[in-house]
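Fill in residues.
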């Protein structure tokens, strides 16, 4: 089973959605059989590397909301995250550019470490308040997730994997994906948003049942129509 997930490390719902997907995969006994392809989607490609002011003021200006409204919104998101087993510290969050973080994710995919690196990036941003545009921070996080320090540092000072990030975003535009998280299962079913675990479980069961049925019809091999290009 192939699952594609478009997300951004500045998006709390992407962190929650990733956690819900993993819980659903575990509940359905498919954690070892699923191939998750993590795809890039920058919510704000023009974001500067380090923005002044705290996150509440930044969100207030971005969405034309009062500071108290913003705090209530982030507290609600934090409660959703806590239910999923995540710790959100919006008071520490640094709004910043995530392009290099996405490049690191693509680099990690080459060694099968994308899931671990993605988890480290989300945790560093939303729990620890780390700056994901700082390359020294990215190298450190990559090392903790199992990447070679020297190779990761060398990659980040180059422009490698930038085209891979843009390709993911181009594919998202082609598929008319306008918000994240966004999931595509076996090129047949799509789920938008940080849906509850049960929603993911229902889709996983449906995809698995169809794969098994097609496998029986084809004498043990399955071929599925590519509905998403």
């Amino acid at each position: 089973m192939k699952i594609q997930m478009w997300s951004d490390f500045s998006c709390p719902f992407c962190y929650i959605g990733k956690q819900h997907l993993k819980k659903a995969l575990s509940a359905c006994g498919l954690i070892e059989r699923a191939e998750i392809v993590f795809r890039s989607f920058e919510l704000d490609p023009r974001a500067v590397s380090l923005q002044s002011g705290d996150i509440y003021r930044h969100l207030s200006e971005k969405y034309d909301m009062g500071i108290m409204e913003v705090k209530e919104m982030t507290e609600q998101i934090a409660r959703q995250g806590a239910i999923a087993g995540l710790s959100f510290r919006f008071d520490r969050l640094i709004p910043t550019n995530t392009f290099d973080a996405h490049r690191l994710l693509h680099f990690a995919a080459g060694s099968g470490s994308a899931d671990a690196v993605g988890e480290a990036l989300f945790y560093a941003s939303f729990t620890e308040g780390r700056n994901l545009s700082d390359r020294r921070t990215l190298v450190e996080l990559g090392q903790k997730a199992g990447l070679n320090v020297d190779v990761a540092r060398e990659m980040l000072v180059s422009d490698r994997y930038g085209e891979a990030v843009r390709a993911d975003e181009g594919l998202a535009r082609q598929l008319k994906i306008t918000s994240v998280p966004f999931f595509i299962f076996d090129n047949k079913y799509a789920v938008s948003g940080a849906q509850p675990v049960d929603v993911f479980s229902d889709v996983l069961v449906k995809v698995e049942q169809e794969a098994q049925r097609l496998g029986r019809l084809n004498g043990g091999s399955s071929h599925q129509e590519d509905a998403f290009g």
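Confidence is low (pLDDT under 50) at residues 221-229.
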